[in-house]
């Protein structure tokens, strides 16, 4: 049923204005963003399909434009760009939080921030969060892509970027497109190599976060950093 045919108290926009955004379900919020469905599929059905397909809003936010294109009803650019824009706003909001306060004031925010950046990628990416002396975010850079080993991630390049940003500390991160959140032997060895290289220029490695579509795990919390 089109939104305009619903009773006024059941329309997401009117419900939001009357009771606040928190009163809406995930499906209703998405329906409000999408605005219209398609022939044979209401906007609520389209919104529910997105929630079901990607495992809720968290999974949807970790989804790229190419995956969204596979959903019938999102083949056109308009709705996809709306959803991708929301994703980018979420990234920027989290980045602002991490720049304004010490990252370990909110460790969950760091994981969520990295998930938004890395979880949807179909190839492995190695990224670094560069931090100032107060452990606030200065910059994030994706430095390497492909199968990650000691030989494909160059410690010299990581050190040079840390010096460029005048970083006092870093958080390393990479994704596992396979979905595994377990640190491999290669992950542990790479972390040790980078800790040694960065230590020579007095830059601390605070953590190495592994990201997958289903979540993120901290190697520091596992005693591996």
TrEMBL record:
Ranges in a coiled coil: none
Alphabetical keyword list: Hydrolase, Metal-binding, Metalloprotease, Protease, Zinc
Positions of the MPN domain: 103-225
GO biological process terms on file: proteolysis
GO MF annotations in UniProt: metal ion binding; metallopeptidase activity
Domain of life (superkingdom): Bacteria
Gene3D superfamilies per the UniProt record, alphabetical: Cytidine Deaminase, domain 2
Keyword hit for Hydrolase: yes
Database matches in CDD domains: MPN_DUF2466 (cd08071)
Family: Belongs to the UPF0758 family.
Name of this chain's protein: DNA repair protein RadC
Gene: radC
């Amino acid at each position: 049923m089109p939104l305009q045919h619903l009773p006024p108290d059941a329309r997401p926009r009117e419900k939001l204005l009357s009771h606040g955004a928190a009163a809406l379900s995930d499906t209703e919020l998405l329906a409000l963003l999408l605005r219209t469905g398609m022939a044979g599929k209401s906007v609520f059905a389209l919104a529910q399909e997105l929630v079901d397909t990607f495992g809720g809003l968290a999974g949807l936010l970790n989804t790229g434009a190419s995956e969204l294109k596979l959903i019938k009803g999102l083949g056109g650019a308009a709705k996809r760009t709306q959803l991708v824009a929301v994703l980018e706003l979420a990234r920027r909001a989290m980045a602002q939080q991490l720049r304004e306060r010490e990252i370990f004031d909110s460790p969950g925010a760091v994981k969520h921030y990295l998930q938004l950046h890395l979880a949807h990628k179909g190839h492995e990416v190695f990224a670094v969060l560069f931090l100032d002396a107060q452990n606030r975010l200065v910059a994030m850079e994706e430095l390497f892509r492909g199968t990650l080993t000691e030989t494909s991630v160059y410690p010299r390049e990581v050190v040079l970027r840390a010096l460029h940003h005048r970083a006092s500390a870093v958080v390393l991160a990479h994704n596992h497109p396979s979905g595994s959140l377990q640190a491999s032997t290669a992950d542990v060895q790479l972390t040790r190599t980078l800790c040694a290289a960065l230590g020579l220029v007095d830059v601390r490695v605070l953590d190495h976060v592994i990201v997958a579509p289903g979540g993120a795990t901290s190697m520091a919390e596992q005693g591996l950093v």
